[in-house]
Amino acid sequence: MSTEDKRIREFAYQIWESEGKPEGQEARHWEMARKLAEAEALAPSKSPKAAAGKTAVKKPAAAKTLDGKSAAAKPKAKPAAASKVIPPGEKAVEKKPRAPRKPPAV
Predict the structure, then answer these.
(1) CA trace torsion 31, 37, 39, 42 (10° rounding)
(2) pLDDT by 10s per residue, the chain, length 106
(3) In this structure, are residues 11 and 32 in contact, taking their beta carbons and an 8 Å threshold?
(4) Which residues pair with 64 in a beta bridge?
(5) What DSSP string runs through the chain?
(6) For a Cys staple, 12 with which of 2, 5, 33, 68, CB 3.0–4.6 Å?
(7) Could you tell me which of 7, 63, 62, 74 has the C-alpha nearest to residue 36?
């Protein structure tokens, strides 16, 4: 088995696990994994050390707001929760809202 086949197998397994281990989806998982491995092979490879050492990125100075405080001091909004990846051709399942809890009987 070639290293490419091993990588495809790893990707297919990760896809299968991420979808809740469904049965009967082997061909679709394998095709998705093959495309991922192909894209990974075509992507230019850069080592983390080489990428970090070549270019120094300057950070812009903190902007001041009207009240004189730094814009960086303002609380940032929390990032949106990572949504589950839905393969092409499948519908997203929306969760129903939970009913409010009833107080315990006394």
Answers:
(1) -140
(2) 788 899 999 999 999 999 999 999 999 999 999 999 999 888 877 655 555 555 555 555 555 555 555 555 555 555 555 456 666 666 666 777 788 888 888 7
(3) yes
(4) 70
(5) --HHHHHHHHHHHHHHHHTT--SS-HHHHHHHHHHHHHHHHHSPP--HHHHHHH-PPPPPPPPB-TTS-BGGGSPPPPPPPPPPP--TT-PPPPPPPPPPPPPPP-
(6) 33
(7) 7
Residue 11 has which token pair? 């990707």
**Global confidence as pTM:** 0.42
> Tokens 């949106």 — which residue?
80
What residues contact 16, with CB distance under 8 A and at least 6 apart? 22, 25, 26, 29
Q: Which two tokens stand for residue 38?
A: 């192909």
